[in-house]
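Database export, one record per block. Field names are fixed; values are copied verbatim from the stored entry.
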Amino acid sequence: MKRLEGKTALVTGAAQGIGRAIAERLAADGARVALCDMDVAAAEAAKASFENPDQHLAFKLDVTDSKAVDAVVAETASAFGTIDILVNNAGIGAAAGDGSDKFYAAMAERDAEIAEKGSSRKPVDQLIHMEDDGWRRVVAVNLDGAFFCTRAVVRVMAEKGNGGSIVHISSTSAASGEGSPHYVASKTAVIGLARQLARELAPRNIRVNAVAPGPTDTPIMQNISAEWRASLAAAVPLGRMANPSEVASVVAFLASDDASFVTGALYAANGGSYMI
């Protein structure tokens, strides 16, 4: 028997990258999966690639809309009978008005100066260019979304009384501090949320953990320069980026009964790039 046979899961940000790999792995391990994403056509396409696609669901979901979250969770629970696993994967690293354009321009100027002179003292700023809406959008997706989805799913788990497993996808940047202010802050916050909820929900046999991927070869990585991608891979002791399936393997473990005594933990899937 597959280790998640008879289990049901909801995965956010499931249309591509790490989220799609997680949904694929949970389905391959026997779970029925609700794939949730803003791009529902891509979520449907991912579902269609699974063995027995009719056993799974796909939903359009904006995780920053708490009423939409409640509706999708209710529909999933109605269709599946319960929800045993939640993976809060939906996340973004940039938004309009967050100063990313000025940050990348300054980085390019600094790198050019280093190439020419061997060093540079040029500041590479983002904070001073970040507008309120840019900050709020990233925090809304990465942190508010995790909260809204967790609250809705825990209500189902509490009603059914069968326990469950919740996994937040954080980032190695939460420990290293590398990245943009809103991204690092929000990815650090979901670790704190996981730890607090692990204590609160333990009497209900609901386990809550977090996974911190390092550089991972996802479609988002195609938005940065080849040189930057190469430097990210070179900084990893294992000498490469992760494949999304390698992150999914850690999530599948935490979702399963193999991790029945694991809660409040942070698992690093980063090739040794930062020792958490």
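Remark 1: Residues 64 and 144 are 6 Å apart (CA to CA).
Remark 2: The first strand starts at residue 8 and ends at 12.
End of record.
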